[in-house]
Amino acid sequence: MNAADANLLPLFGAGILLMLLNGVLVAAELALLRVCLSHFEPELAERLREREALRSMIDHAESTVRLARSSSLLCVILYAFTLLRAAQVVYVRSEAAWGTYGALAAALCLFAFGYGLYAMCGIILPRALGLKHPAPALGAGRVALFFFAPLRLLVLKPIRALTTALLRMAGVKDLPGLESLGFEEQIEHSNEGSQPMPVMARKIFRNALDMRGLVVSDVLLPRHQVQWMDLNDSPEENMKLARQTGHTRFPLCDGDLDRCVGMVHIKDVFRKVKNQRRVDLPRIKREMLRISPDMSVEEALQLLLGKRQHMALVVDEFRGAEGIITLERLLELLVGDIRDEFDIEEDNIRKTPNGEYNVSGLTPVYELERELDVEFENQDVSSFGGLITAELGRIPEQGEHLVLDGLDVIVTEVDERRVIWARVRKTEEAPEEE
Questions:
Q1: Beta strands per DSSP E along 266-418
Q2: pLDDT tens-digit map of 35-52
Q3: Would you put residue 194 in left (φ > 0), alpha (ψ -120 to 50) or beta?
Q4: Are 254 and 232 in contact (CB under 8 A)?
Q5: What pLDDT digit, counting tens, does each position of 99-138 carry?
Q6: Can you say whether the dihedral through the CA atoms of 307, 312, 316, 318 is positive or negative?
Q7: Which of 20, 25, 208, 378 sits at a 20 to 30 Å CA gap from 308?
């Protein structure tokens, strides 16, 4: 064994040890994040907490993650020093035989090999293993963190106190915790080591995230747009309404939507009635489900699926009807617009070449907020036309102009009951008054 081998062997051994140690720390960190923050496996943390050796890590997850990250950073620094030292030895030993350029090439090749090996075995593979097998990753991480425990008192606490003080001077009250790893990051991590998530699946996931915080009043069909059958009308008039609209389900009312007595399904008309001119709507009606406008869209979707209903009447605390909600309307929040060959293609929000938008009065408020990246103060109405009417306190006139929460709005089409179209332009933010 020559002198070069004698100098490189300890460096190679130290480098491999640091690489494996960092891999254990990275795997433990990702495993702990999955266990504590998983929205898709809530029982995982309770199952692992039953193991006494892992209970303390899970109960003090935030401080454990900080220690693991700091220890991993220390391993990276030591490994970089070891790799640079090894490259220096290779350069010196190779210079006499291969010259300056040959020695430099040999040192660079060693550095590139060491860097790639560390990235693969010390970071990428451990991340995948920690997410895939959290229990053994936490067990190995517990042993590794035992040797780095003094860092918590000597380094982490002083640095955290100093960082918190600097952030408060900058107007940030506190450091972000583990909850900063949200749903989207978990979705990304869940795919590591597997096939990429399909585009449609990503769309459904993101739409499901956007559903959080929405209530039924945000997505209902307002009462002035609801087509309903009237007990006071003749069977011929009600059947004419069904043919004109093409709907399959209609609320059955006694003169007004507030006095809804049930729901009529067109299939029942063809199945149970031989002569449609003498159809007895009260006899074939079905029960109409009633829900509150403050119910979350998740609860409404579960309720409709559980009751095997496709339509529900939305009523307020005074039993007045605000509109209806349908299963199709809720599913569209997840998968996008569901259109068949009978639907008329119409975009609620149309962008013009000059940067303005033509917005239908029927556009849901949440959809306009998402499209234009704005937030309206009035959350009591569900449609953009209703928002304009509520702001003015009356039905606007055609050509009327108003400024609405950072939007310059001109009503371009209106009838005696509602806003049909409006032209919208985002205004520049005005400076705050002192």
A1: 289-291, 311-315, 321-326, 349-351, 357-360, 401-404, 407-414
A2: 877 655 667 777 887 887
A3: beta
A4: yes
A5: 888 888 988 998 899 999 999 998 899 988 888 888 888 8
A6: negative
A7: 208
